[in-house]
Amino acid sequence: MGGYIIRRLLASIPVILLVGIITFSILHIAPGDPAVLMAGDEATPEDVEKIRQALGFDKPFIVQFGLWLGRLLRGDLGTSIFSKYSIVSLMAPRLQPTLSLAFLAITLSILIGVPLGVFAAWKAGRLVDRAIMLFAVLGFSVPVFWLGFIFIWAFAVQIRIFPAVGFVPISEGIIPFLKSMTLPAMANAIPFSALVARMTRSTMLEVLNEDYIRTARAKGLGEYVVNTRHALRNASIPIVTVIGLVFAALVGGAVVTETVFAIPGLGRMLVDGVVRRDYPIVQAMLMVVSVAYVFVNLVVDILYAYLDPRIRY
User: Do 213 and 297 fall within a single domain?
Assistant: First the structure.
């Protein structure tokens, strides 16, 4: 198992390096000069050139990339062009809202999607199966921002159970924290739980036709044991893959949800960086998202080996 993990870790290094090259290249190929934006409309060409020299934009591309990669390896994500603060210090207070939203949303997606998918596969072709698949289609088709506005109108304006916008840190109390995160977590969880339910149902239907499932039933095992202990574990690899991708996307920043509910997370930071053409922030955020995807894929690969020991060989 240890050798398998080491091989997966080593395979992740070239991926991260390639992502870094692509990220750095795209932002430098894109039209526009951040030095001109920083200098303002009344700046002279000499002022713009001084800013370019201070930021290192006058150096060759390969030199700029080497300097940026060196700072990245030291844990220095750079400095914001507009705020003049280090990006690490800007990201630190935004990690808790984004990670909280990601963990709550993925937990709700699993708790809702997996049981619904298993039950739909068990009752395949019946009315309850069609009802669950109707929920899955509608849930995956409805835009997240629309769900967010509906939840705000229903539970914050009409019933007034939850706050409409904002984020309360967990240090100020678990109840206020959960109240502030319930609506945005549900807005994200419904589409993703629909996706998980559809994937669970389709993989379960394939497994339920296998010989070992018929053998388990022939031994007199109940349907609950057959579906959960025998079928679900053997059908779990595609489900774990989808859950991993969903979690990585949420960690990268649920931009729409954070905007609708005014949550000061990484998603809004990325949007602000793109609007201002703050290149260091955009580069840093893209790298953080990419590393999050690679890390989640690594965890998923390790889970593969746990769920199916044949994979590690």
Answer: yes
